[in-house]
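Dear support,

I submitted the protein below through the web form. The confirmation email said the job was done, but the results page showed an empty box. After a refresh the structure appeared. I'm attaching both so you can tell me whether what I see now is the final result or a partial one.
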Amino acid sequence: MPRYLVCITGASGALYSLRLVSALASRGATLHLACSPWGARVILEETGRPLGYWLGKVRASGGPSGGPAIVNYHPFDDFSSPLASGSFRLDATVVIPCSIGTLGSLASGTSSNLIHRAGAVALKEGWPLILVPRETPLSLVTIRTMETLKESGAVLLPAIPSFYAKPQTIEQLVDTVVNRILDHLGLPEASAFRWGEGPR
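What the results page shows now:
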């Protein structure tokens, strides 16, 4: 059973992380999750409900065929977590949404919290690290930071939704980004609209 780590930081775009967690859980993956305090605050501000509410829903009925899902939560400041070690193998790490401060820490190699350390582990171990920034416009400092991370092996996948599928809801719009992440994880969404193909 594949194991994925989803890290949530304090950038706007909480729905991106929640939709990704739901998509991975529904495929039967074992999920590990870390969330910064500001990430938790953004979830509350943007959805009206705390992170614990959403995790409870996924754990109870977000797995395959509506069954329970495995979601392991790791405190943001817990460096004793297995996520801090490369000997704890993961199939991929996704930071979504990824704040610009987190990008900077990952590019500079500094680890002041578990999310930074988990990203550093993914880079040093060479397993997929997908970073989903949601920021505009971009400063030259940020562009150079992204360049460093790209050269180090990370996938930079900005939260830029597509419109050619004519999404009718916010969830459908968000899923245009989530589906691209799933593509990079080797878990393509069968119903995703693909240019020149349409729904499968």
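Response: this is the final, complete result; the empty box was a page-load delay. The domain at 3-184 is CATH 3.40.50.1950 (Rossmann fold).
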